[in-house]
Here is the input.
Amino acid sequence: MSMTTARLLREEAQTIAPPEPDLTPHQIVARADGMRDKLRVAQAAAEAAGNISAETNQALVDAGFYRVIQPRAFGGYGFDLPTYVRLVTAVARGCPETAWVLSLVLGHVHQLSTYPLQAQVEAYGDTGDFRAPEVAAPQGRGVAVTGGYRVTGAWDYASGSAHATHILLAFTIDDAEPDGAPMRMGLFDRTDYEIVRNWDVIGMQGTGSDRVTMTDVFVPTHRAKPYPPMKSVLPPEIYHDEPLFHGPARPFIVTESAAVIVGAAEGALDLYEESFRVRKATGPTGGPRQELAEYQFNYGRCRALVDTARAALLQAASDYMEFGRRTCATGEPCSEDDWRRLTLVILQSIHLAHEAVDIMFRTVGTSASRKDSMMGRYWRNVGVLRGHLAHQSDSSAINYGRTHFGQSPVGIA
Here is the structure.
């Protein structure tokens, strides 16, 4: 790209102002807190429909949530990762499924930042409204043609695809060079794909994580970046003072989902406390649960687990920003030892949150097992998320130990 073209693109991008230029991190998180009751009420409908509603998604758009970490040059608020965590946990406290759609879709601006500037300008458009699911598993194939690829495939687990403006999809290519990336991650428009309803699970049913398909869709070279990236280069015109985008990828990716799980645990704890205030124990005592030592003990240990999970996640988010600021200042990327350690802390916050919700479910009473129980829904949602491939901490711990002692990692974690 010539310097003239880059300058024009930069000027165009910088004309996008965020909808509320004076919005603060405290205000945007307060908005999420204010939605909690409505999100709780909408849980059952989202689960039954297999997706969050258009009305719920529009409320997230109107509140500016999808722009929370988006660069200000592209119409975002440019807030830091701790603000992102506080926002997502607040939404998840009301509805984990809504938070999952929000967290992943808004988080993919981090992935977009490593595309050529031309692709980013096209994606953000005139208003900065960018919402993109991502499927990193290469479930499609691209045929090289002049100026790009023609792509055909079917990608499962496209969370939030019904409410998107774009989508990021990995595909194999037929012109890979021996020492080059074997795949591409394509940036596609919403009109490029169709949705096939195939999401049918016991938890997180309301995320709309359906299959998307496309047939012979052209994607230009500047919107098909090498994947996995051989080296990520952020356009300096936009990102020279955006430390969040200079932080390590793996901890950021795990934070996207950890924030949902920790927020869900907070929501479950709300229900747990509410049940103690209104229910009496069965059996000889028959006293109010909040006055009985057994229930006080269980509440206390769950409170400690959830608060510790939140504190660890927020500290990790703060450490992540420090790594990003260091890279901005020196040009040196975060060390492998540092980003692997940081990932382990984030994974530990998931462990703690999951343990708390499990204790709550098995001590609150059999009513939690009803199909329409909100506590049961939190438990199912957290259980499903705990099993996600990205949350397998054993492999991450092994690989931290291996690399720390000078050996190569194994597997993908």
